[in-house]
Specification:
Blueprint lengths: L3 H24 L6 H18 L4 H6 L2 E2 L4 E4 L2 E3 L2 H7 L4 E2 L8 H9 L2 E2 L4 E4 L2 E3 L2 H7 L2 E2 L8 H6 L3 E4 L4 E4 L2 E3 L2 H20 L4 H9 L10 E2 L2 E2 L2
Antiparallel strand pairs: 1-2, 2-3, 4-7, 5-6, 6-7, 8-11, 9-10, 10-11, 12-13
Helix pairs in contact: 1-2, 4-9, 6-8, 8-9
Amino acid sequence: MPSRRRFVSLAAAGLLVRSLRPALRQSRAMKPRTPALLLLAAACVAATAAAGDPCADARRTDGWCQEEGIGYVANVGIHSRLLWDAMDAHGHVLDLSTFTCPTCRKAIDEEGFCEQHRTGFVKKLAYFSRLTYEMARGERIDPAKLHCSECRRNTETTGWCAKHRTGMIGNVALRDRAAWERAEAAVQILRRAVDMLPHCEWCAIAMVTDTKCPIDKTQWRGGQPVR
């Protein structure tokens, strides 16, 4: 059953829409302003709805929603603090001088990704998953400010807009098609890992980190068990 907070939020959104109707009717006589008014209306309604959602900020920032006990990465809900922590959405400050792997050293210098150690580097921060590394190289945007309906729709999950040559991973825009494809594949692995949670939380973590489950000793690579 919907919560009382949700009913209040929807009622507020309805009042806002009704209050905007006179301005929208007037805009018909001023066609150049119509798109701007419609975008303003959509942004206001979205903001009103978000005000009643305790997890709105967590979705927007790939954070953890304490109120609902759920984390988000790329708009994927994760009901496991361990798995959400493992995704390492915001990177780590490390002593980069301690890395001796030649590929890691090169990745640090060129903001690349070391496949052997499954670590990427962006702006001197270390990311321990391919997904969050690729997202760190993108641009986080406000979906309400997007004029393209396809790009805006893609922010709900993932998608590529051929017209604007832009891929969305949640609310992160990637203009490099190859980088978007790698990130999109990683999102699919994350979704399978979320499905794994009821069966084995540590397998779910191993799936997104290409490591071995410490419980059943299954080695995972690319979201698949290594036989």
